[in-house]
């Protein structure tokens, strides 16, 4: 009988991982012995549990991988389905175990390192296709973690595919770096919340699935699938102090986990009806619980005395789960995506060949257009071909070294880009300096132009002022000319009058009298004219009677009747 049709009964394997105590946690009385036994003492009562393996607080991520996942991955590479799920109270290390953190890789990254290592050891004639999906079940709704459109996805079932999620994104993985990106992007999309027990608590059940197809030289194919399930915290609602939306979450989490418990019990009791359909989680994990899958459970527990109730509850749940028997069977599905890919590649290669061997005879403009179309088609086909070919991993290819090489290349490119960036920056700085210089020069020439314009205005103003002054000068000159000619005329007239007066005087007044009269002439400041001191000399003794003198009754002294004008201070 062919290996593919063989069915092996295999129990769910259960591993217990103890989370190391964190200060100020007080230790509970739990101790492991012989690697597989765990003794829990409460008061005077001691209970011993037995599991496949106890991984104590000192167990490293690699210890966990070697014990829980390694042999399972080897089986998946051979065409089996497998499931590893982490179950336990919130904060006990389920996410840490399945995904790990930045410092220590959890099961999923180690699975890929394992797979890539196996591919590198395989013959060149073997080809592989590794595809992943990543989803969460939150409040009984399925969400695609690799496509954050937040659409609720539906479960479907088909005879050839079994139970599957419609429209779930599948990514073909080519390198370990790609895996890290997928984990980190998907994890960011996951529903998180802070509970009393964990600041970054996963409030959903996450299912990371790896589909692995291997095709060998003899034409045989192995199609395996590995589910890695990080369940939400199993604690009782009261323990997480959940209220409101958190309470709804906690109720839904409990619904899935209690359905999981019921399914497990129903399987152990060999009931006719197994309530898989009562929750999305059990529906999707149907094949892993009592189905054909190889299933392992890792139950994470706290060693703190404060969590002893939850720890015992987890241990009991795990104890029951290990009694579930699966009928493990290698996949026989003919639905090979790898084969589809290879067929498509072949078809594309043939089309390309046809295009290459189809010479165009006559050269016309119509032919040119056709040629261009053919070239475009060729490019498109080549791209499709390359994309498909890159997804298929070939045996013997060291994807880890390739990843390392790619990493180095990336670093090299990054440093090149850095150099380019620096010189571009320098060029930009030079350009900026030139622009500054130019605008400074423009500003300067602008200010020179402005100064020039200002000078023009000042010159115009000065010219206008000169013009005005000239006009004024001209006006004044004319005025002075007029005045001078008037003065000359006046002078002439005065000279004539003087001449006439001299003539009259010389002809009428004897020379001897004239000298006497001249000596009697005085200048009267008050009346601003000449007067004669002794009027009798000229035969005129009239005197002017001043009204003021009259009013003041100033008496003109009679003893000197010739003095016509008495002095004021007399
Ligand atoms: N074995 C361990 N060794 C060291 N640190 C651990 C271990 N297990 C868990 N931790 C740390 O404890 C914290 C909680 O762990 P984690 O988030 O994995 O718990 P969880 O069980 O997934 O919780 P939840 O159900 O709330 O999501 C993390 O900081 C993690 O790094």
Describe this structure in words.
It holds the Pfam family Kinesin. One of its GO terms (biological process) is microtubule-based movement. ATP binds at residues 88-95. Residues 11-324 form the Kinesin motor domain. This is Kinesin-like protein. With 570 residues, this protein is α+β, with helices and mostly antiparallel strands. It has four domains: 8-329, 3-Layer(aba) Sandwich (Kinesin); 337-397; 421-502; 509-570, no CATH class. It is 48% helix and 21% strand. It contains 13 helices and 22 strands. The strands form six sheets. Strands 2, 6, 7, 8, 9, 10, 13, 16, 17, 18 and 20 form an eleven-stranded mixed beta sheet that branches. A hairpin with a 4-residue loop joins strand 21 (521-524) and strand 22. Helix 1 (61-77) packs across helix 3 (107-121) and helix 9 runs antiparallel to helix 10. The chain is elongated. It binds adenosine-5'-triphosphate. Residues 19-20, 88, 90-96, 101, 198, 200-202, 232-233, 300 line the site of adenosine-5'-triphosphate.
What are the main properties of this structure?
single chain, 570 residues, alpha+beta, Kinesin, 4 domains, 11-stranded mixed sheet, 3-stranded antiparallel sheet, 13 helices, 22 strands, 48% helix, elongated, binds adenosine-5'-triphosphate
User: Fraction of residues in helices?
Assistant: 40-55%
Overall number of structural domains: 4
Count of separate DSSP helical elements:
13
Radius of gyration from the alpha-carbon trace, in angstroms: 60 Å
Secondary structure class reads alpha+beta
Number of strands: 22
CATH architecture of the largest domain: 3-Layer(aba) Sandwich
Which fold name is given in CATH as the topology of the largest domain?
A: Kinesin
Shape by Cα distribution: elongated
Strand content: 15-25%
Termini Cα gap: 176 Å
Mean pLDDT: 81
| Ligand kinds | adenosine-5'-triphosphate
CATH classification, class level of the largest domain: Alpha Beta
The description of the largest β-sheet is: 11 strands, mixed
**Name given to the CATH homologous superfamily of the largest domain:** Kinesin motor domain
Subcellular location: Cytoplasm, Cytoskeleton
Family: Belongs to the TRAFAC class myosin-kinesin ATPase superfamily. Kinesin family.
Keywords: ATP-binding, Coiled coil, Cytoplasm, Cytoskeleton, Microtubule, Motor protein, Nucleotide-binding
Binding site for ATP: 88-95
